[in-house]
Amino acid sequence: MFEDERNSTAALIAADPAFTSLEASGAPILAVMGTPPRVVYANAAATAVFGADPAARLLTGGERGLAAAIDRLRGSGAPRLERLSIDLGAGVQTITILCRRLFESDDAPCFAVAALGLRADAGAPPEPAPDAIPEPPA
What we know:
The protein is of the alpha+beta class. The chain has helices at about 1-15, 15-25, 45-50, 55-60, 65-75, and strands spanning about 30-35, 40, 80-85, 90-105, 110-115. A hairpin with a 4-residue loop joins strand 1 (about 30-35) and strand 2.
């Protein structure tokens, strides 16, 4: 059941032009549904940025976390930008997300969420160019 839910959610995200563009640019994207909210889909970029369990990082944070943002969006069908405070490993950071309702189910609405401005490689320090590596003293 979980794999079917994940695949159908991924297909709905892929059918949305805004999320398709964000996916192509490497943005972390996930889908959240249920009460309490649970992550039902995370793309490779979301897993790279938020870890193997994105719910642990994103669904906490009190009034500035994703669960609170989802609660504020439950009555609206319009896409919305939200600011979240989350710990990305180097301390708490404020990120901007685009959140949009994908569909309504018996359980609860399902929301697509994209973290704007974050990329999987954004946290890694840049590799030095090969000619910039100093030679060890002889």
